[in-house]
Amino acid sequence: MTEAILLVGGKGTRLRPLTVNTPKPMVPAAGVPFLTHQLARAHAAGVDHIVLATSYLAEVFEPYFGDGSSLGLSIEYVTEDEPLGTGGAIRNVASRLRSGPDDPVLIFNGDILTGLDIKALVDTHNTSGADVSLHLTRVDDPRAFGLVPTDPTGRVTAFLEKPQTPEEIVTDQINAGAYVFRRSVIDDIPAGRPVSVERETFPGLLAEGAHLQGMVDSTYWLDLGTPQAFVRGSADLVLGRAPSPAVPGRCGDRLVLPTAEVAPDAKLTGGTVVGHGAVVGEGARITGSTILSDAVVEAGAVITDSLVGAGARIGARTILAGAVVGDGARVGPDNELREGVRVWCGAVLPAGSVRFSSDQ
To answer: Which ranges of the chain would DSSP assign to H, the alpha helix?
Structure first.
């Protein structure tokens, strides 16, 4: 395996306000843009050429990663003028691929944190002779995902999108967002229009009698589509629960990046990250949270399972639990924000103005 496509064009609507100024794959997780972890894991599996399929805020990717040489990769960038869906995005970058018609091409979604054995997926593809191979994982509640039942040999028998009734839930195997395509299959995707691989390409291939192979890999897997999931994923990277060679430091309870300032009596636990130039004041307690660059957490604040955006400020004694504070926001002293509260970028909450709120 030498070649891959990374789909990084989504708007990350569910992640706002994290994605107001930053595309989802570039939001920091465990101290570096999340995309860095995916690129590093691909390189470790033997990939050396990657095409990034970009769209939303496409201009930020290349200045950061350049030609990919710092990661041991050759990276190219292709931008969609109009959103093309997963299949359309894959087809849109086909001209940049170097593979022959029968060669395998690895494809990743840009919002999945996984411990997938990439080499095993490629081996499964090659030994089975499949046209497309899919990473499948098992979940307790599959209603929010696409079900992928397989026969005893692992061959895919159907695609069932987001079932709701008990009768529709025929398996706990879901599409986990990583694939290996035979190059010729990519070239056959219709060009120049939106295409969904989940709703059009895969069911169409199955109806035509193509060989789609599933490989169940039930190692770590997390869809980072919500702020709560993103915060959890970052913490799991720091704690070592989710594997990545790109974590900039040793795994443990905390990751404090260079130029950050943390008071000696502040307590950081649960995979907390403190970004470059951030300041954590005396007696602050931060658990399982991400404090982005240049943010300030004042004395005595208590932050749990939350994210504080770049340049934001959290006032003294304020409590955050499961909250997201956007870039540059100001939360005054003695506030209490819990259970999914999101504070928009640049917003200002005066001292003591909010004691508790939810679903906002």
So the answer is: 34-44, 61-65, 85-92, 118-128, 183-187, 202-207, 227-239
Measured at the CA of 225, the angle between CA 224 and CA 230, to 5 degrees, comes to 40
Under a CB-based contact definition with an 8 Å cutoff, are residues 116 and 143 in contact?
no
For 214, how many CA atoms within 13 A lie in the half-sphere containing its CB?
A: 26
Kindly report the length of the chain: 360
Residues 54, 8: Cα–Cα separation, whole Å:
5
Radius of gyration of the chain (CA): 21
Of 9, 1, 10, 7, whose CA–CA distance to 42 is shortest?
A: 1
Looking at the DSSP assignment, which residues form a beta bridge with residue 320? 303, 337
Strand partners, 74: 49
Buried b (16+ CB within 10 A) or exposed e, 215-250: bebeebbbbbbebbbbbbbbbbbbbeebbbebbeee
Ramachandran angles phi, psi of 223, nearest 5°: -80, 120
Gap between the Cα atoms of 318 and 303, Å rounded = 8
Q: How many beta carbons lie within 10 A of that of residue 139, not counting itself?
A: 16
One digit per residue, pLDDT tens: the chain, 360 residues? 579 999 998 877 888 888 888 888 999 999 999 999 999 999 999 999 999 999 888 899 999 999 999 999 999 999 988 888 999 999 999 999 999 999 999 999 888 999 999 999 999 999 999 999 999 998 888 777 778 999 999 999 988 877 777 777 888 898 898 999 999 999 999 998 999 998 899 999 999 999 999 999 888 999 898 899 999 999 999 999 998 999 998 889 999 999 999 999 999 999 999 999 999 999 999 999 999 999 999 999 999 999 999 999 999 999 999 999 999 999 999 999 998 899 999 999 999 887 765 544
CB atoms inside a 10 Å sphere around CB 265: 11
